[in-house]
Amino acid sequence: MGAAALQKYIGSLGGIGASGVGSSSSYSPKEMNKDIMPEKKTNTYSNDNSMVLQNVKTFKDVKGCDDAKKELEEVVEYLKNPSKFTRLGGKLPKGILLTGAPGTGKTLLAKAIAGEAGVPFFYRAGSEFEEMFVGVGARRVRSLFQAAKKKAPCIVFIDEIDAVGSTRKQWEGHTKKTLHQLLVEMDGFEQNEGIIVMAATNLADILDPALTRPGRFDRHIVVPSPDVRGRQEILELYLQDKPVANDVDINAIARSTPGFNGADLANLVNIAAIKAALTAYHESGHAIVALNTQGAHPIHKATILPRGSALGMVTQLPSQDETSISKKQLLARLDVCMGGRVAEELIFGEDNVTTGARNDLHTATELAQYMVSNCGMSDAIGPVHVKERPSVEMQSRIDAEVVKLLREAYGRVKRLLKKHEKQLHALANALLERETLTADEINKVVHPYQEEPQFSFQDEEFALT
Asked: Fewer CB within 10 A of the end CB, N or C, for the chain?
């Protein structure tokens, strides 16, 4: 399926790379800064039975289904100027049924017709008609069409109509009454009254024949999955307001995603954006810990651009040549190693930490082992240089001390990042916007949120692998 091209895309959007921040393909962040993931707008309704959608679309918002749009252009013309048709005795179909696989844009297409024509758009999902009480569905159908007649010309759209119009549900008495009422309403108005009834389903083969006969839903329009040109148009639409690396080849991504529909492509872009955010927070975690920990090396730069197998990197350089390293400096290195993993946990939730920190954890574990076994920096083990193959008992004690050092570092970093959370958010947003920041630029970003002097006493590159 063109995994290489997809990985290149996901690794380039907004500065994301190929590893570091994890190899999983989906994330559900606990909270996300609005600058990174804008809040999803929900549909609002007017007071007219809470059925008129206000945030309708236009044809420019619909990509990848040009043939279906062309078939529906006459509906737009009719709604804009009904007299043009009625004067010549022309009539449009009462009902238009949009069929196709889930995610191909059937509902979006119906909204776009209303938006193009500038008419009210009455929306109901088929499942909303039914409840546990008999007769509720039929009453809601009547209310829907009564409201539509007052607002004509307009569009009445029933999504997932198979929920009430399926032959498989004929044995359910209340569902049968709802379907019967829908048929009565469609038969009860003339084709020149300005009401266009549209419905969508991905299960057209199970619809009751009474729905699809002439005079009801007699116009069937298939909304297929987009071809390569359509996929490219959809990707361009979703990416138009997102920061994209210059070397991203949208056409290559479109060619690599056969079978993807609009919803799949939207999800692909969303995953890429989340990964970009996760990378930025991961690297920011390293940087904020380095800035606020005594004994940590000064930061040289931070980037979320991929480099080798790493998604991003924070580079630290010592301020002078080192002949020996203090325990404080080694503990600071442990803390900086933990910064990325802890930042992921704080921002995205414990269940959404990724494998991106595996190299950081490897480095931290090796460092803790070195401190305990070689440098005598453990009270439990003492000032001993442990031989290469220690006894089972000694190895067990060493392992316990290593775990203790790592847990203590994790706790310190968690407290530090909670304290400097504003710095973390500010730096992550800056990395998403500019991708690479020098030490001076980082200091300018975090300075407004600085509560106390930063510490950076003293060549490590904490790369994500």
From this structure: N
* 195-201 vs 154-159, strand pairing mode: parallel
Rounded-to-integer distance, Cα 251 and Cα 228, Å: 8
**10: which 2 tokens?**
């996901």
Query: 203 burial class (0-12, 13-18, 19+ CB within 10 angstroms)?
Result: middle
Judge if 65-222 and 275-463 fold alike in CATH terms. Answer: no
CA–CA distance, 415 with 163 (Å, rounded to integer)? 51
Q: Which CATH class is domain 65-222?
A: alpha beta
Who contacts 353 (Cβ-Cβ below 8 Å, separation ≥6)? 341, 344, 345
pLDDT (tens digit, 0 to 9) for every residue of the chain, 465 residues total?
333 334 334 444 433 332 233 333 333 333 444 333 333 333 333 445 455 666 668 888 889 888 888 888 888 888 887 777 767 666 677 789 999 999 899 989 988 988 888 889 999 988 888 765 566 888 899 999 999 888 888 899 999 998 887 765 554 556 778 888 888 888 877 665 778 899 999 988 888 888 888 888 888 999 999 999 999 999 999 998 887 877 789 999 999 999 999 999 999 998 888 888 889 999 999 999 999 999 999 999 999 888 777 788 999 988 877 778 899 999 999 999 999 999 999 998 898 888 888 999 999 999 999 999 988 898 888 888 887 778 888 889 999 999 999 999 999 999 999 999 999 999 999 998 888 999 999 999 999 987 654 444 334 444 443
What are the sequence ranges of the domains in the chain?
Answer: 65-222, 275-463
The angle that helices 358-373 and 327-348 make with each other, rounded to 10 degrees, is: 150
C-alpha atoms less than 13 angstroms from C-alpha of 358 in its C-beta half-sphere: 12
Q: Give which of 453, 130, 423, 432 is closest to 285, Cα–Cα.
A: 423
DSSP single-letter state for residue 72: H
CA distance 62 to 230: 10
CATH topology for the 275-463 domain: Methane Monooxygenase Hydroxylase; Chain G, domain 1 (1.20.58)
List residues with catalytic annotation.
283
Query: Quick one: three-class SS letters along 165-205?
Result: HEHHHCCCHHHHHHHHHHHHHHHCCCCCCCEEEEEEECCHH
CA–CA distances in Å: residue 179 to residues 110, 148, 163, 193, 195 = 21, 18, 10, 22, 19
The number of C-alpha atoms within 13 Å of 286 and in the hemisphere containing its C-beta is 34
Helix (H) or strand (E) holding 405: helix 392-419
Q: What angle do CA 272, 275, 278 make, to 5 degrees?
A: 155
- Letter for the amino acid at 18? A
The two tokens of residue 100 are 């196709």
Q: Residue 264 is which amino acid?
A: D
